[in-house]
Amino acid sequence: MKTSFAICNFCDAICGLEIEHSGRDIRRIRGDMADPFSRGHICPKGSAHKDLLNDPDRLRHPMRRIGSEWHEISWREAVTETARQLVAAQREGGRDAAALYYGNPMGHNYQAMLALLPLIRYLGSRNTYTSNSVDAYPRMLVSRLLYGNQAILPVPDVERTEMLVIMGANPMVSHGSVMGIPDTKRRLSAIGERGGEIVVIDPRRTETAAIANEHLAIRPGTDAYLLLSVLNTLERDGLIQLRHLEPIVENLDQVLDLAAQYSPDRTEGVTGVSASAARKLARRFGETERAVWYGRMGTSAQEFGTLTTWLIDVVNIATGKLDSPGGPMFTTPAVDLAALSKVLREPGKYGRWRSRVAGLAEFNAERPVAALVDELETPGRGQIKAMLIVAGNPVLTNPGSARLEKALGDIGFLASIDYYINETNWRADIVMPPSLALESDQYPALEHSIAIRNSAHFSPAVFAREPGTRHELEILTSLISAIASERRIPNVVARAAGGAIKWAIGSGVLLDVLLRLGPQRLSLSELKRQPHGIDLGPLEPHLPQILQTPGGGIDLAPSLVMADVLRLAERFGRSGGSGALGGGMLGGGVVGVPSGGPGGVLGGGATETSPGPVSNSEILLISRRTLKGMNSWMHNLRSLSRGRESCTIQLNPLDAKERGIADGDKVVVESAEGMIEVTAEVTDAVMAGVASMTIGWGHDSPGAQLSVASGRPGSNINVVVDPGVVDRPSGTSVVNGVPVKISAVS
Ligand code: SF4
């Protein structure tokens, strides 16, 4: 029996794993007590690496579908045919006729990500999509606007804060998102033990709210109004204090002028948070020296995702918390992704062009995934004819699932790099299985950049990859070479290009160079000598040096954001906000604020960007995750699929009673986009007028080969979510706050 150490790469927490095994036979996985960052903690998913390794459903060879039959093929055939089809589509329909989509596991695999970037660039298609656009674009876009680079991400200094306000996030389940916080419960509990407090603002009394000092229930999609009312109170009570940020912050007055119109008395009818609660919260936050306001999924994937994310940062800045111990701070990662992207001149470019059909702005030369189904369905030059999906199951994870499934079924050619034949790729032509995390070298470059504490951890592969699989690095670099060959670049040159990239990444040379050039001046050999990782200390102040904005400061009123303020004001009126809005808001526009209408900063576009009005019979649907869930394929892992049914819709007892629904009943959830049936869970954890449903379910596609997941398929929330209803600046689909009708199954 041997003991090996590794990193769990399933989520941002990057827990250290201690694995007892004999060859590939794993006896036990537990948390690595010597890992200074995760301190022995793992969640149920950490132990489930064993199930993934042993899962008989997992593919061990590349497969090709002929009719409804799958046949094993060689890697050469899989890669060559994929390249041939992508290039053929581009020859016939232009560059955009070949599309690429990649899912969130790519962000947790540094080698694959480094190889994917040149492939994306080489393919050169504007039809490139990422799961980041499902929930992370608002955060990345606001970082780009305020700090000059999408990768400059503020992270709560949880270990020193005295007040943590969590809005639309549930770290007790997620272990942080754009905030790596392993050993979450102990770290959050420590805030209370040292006399601090946690406040959770969420339509649902979440698992995090259960250990918080206070929970404020808020109506979905109204967070921006509460934040404006908080700013309003801070200003009235003289609690606006930029402190050390004074020399670098511009245009705070513009934001305060806007906030002046949203007093807590006016917003309470819209948000559901009473004026007195909003005032108390604002005062406590303003008066607490070490405090931080943090938001994630609920504040991003909603009608005003960009504005809400921006306002969270504004509150942190206007009270002088940013870049101060106990507030939102910036990491000092050993591999500095923000500095690297600056060198590569890729700070997060935005809006250079728009999607062909919906008119959504590009970000990072990618289209928001909200545009995907239109680009598949709509004829014309640039319509997608061939597609490669890497580590993603967009039919389950992206809005408009039913349309997307049909459109992907009708596509000329579809290839996928995935462990499984899933609900998306069961209609693909070719599926190529990658190796596992435990079979690859790991350096969590992205996760270290968003961790609540500085650390560096490299873990070598525990097992060799299975002979029939390939590392994603190998697959992607082979594709680069094969595409080059198809484009009639001489074979020797084509092979050399892919081979050079593969060598630089796979040998560790590139990582070593990045570590040596990074702010911690480490080396790969040093990290290899520390199998449990290295603690690099608490977060440190970095302003203004870290900023990459043109003037070197923070403009709190970027035109892109201010242009969207009109939409917020209009929505406020329609939502029944009390009192008349200031004359400038609904009339000729706010003074000094450019128009957000067609031709304005946000530009036009065919997409309907706002949810329709909510009638009395409708309920606002929000999404949630469970501790055992993350990526949809995890529902096929036996240890994660035991216990109570996970796919449920939570309903408040008042709403359930009104509709004659009892706990455990099957209910119909219906929107203009589609209809599903799901099991009701009646609980006062969710506020009246709101329903909360789990994500990643709906394992009932006839051709998917997920024997465990299909035994308890659940329902797919994204069937009822319209991809065309978006947060306008970022193009992020509104997943939280979808008006639906819910009734008992007759
Ligand atoms: S918290 Fe995240 S990193 Fe840690 S074991 Fe669970 S899934 Fe893995």
Structure, briefly:
This protein has 746 residues and is an alpha/beta fold.
Structure description:
- The model is unreliable at 580-609 (pLDDT under 50).
- The strands form nine sheets. Strands 5-4-19-18-17-6-7 form a seven-stranded mixed beta sheet. Strands 23-27-24-26-25-30 form a six-stranded mixed beta barrel.
- A hairpin with an 8-residue loop joins strand 1 and strand 2 (16-22).
- The longest helix has 19 residues, at 75-93.
- The protein folds into four domains: 2-54, ADC-like domains (N-terminal domain of TfIIb, Single Sheet); 63-127 and 367-434 and 469-532, Rossmann fold (3-Layer(aba) Sandwich), CATH 3.40.50; 139-332 and 557-586, Dimethylsulfoxide Reductase, domain 2 (3-Layer(aba) Sandwich), CATH 3.40.228.10; 619-744, Barwin-like endoglucanases.
- With 746 residues, the chain is α/β, with parallel strands linked by helices.
- The N and C termini lie far apart (57 Å).
- Bound molecules: iron/sulfur cluster.
- Iron/sulfur cluster (SF4) binds next to helix 1.
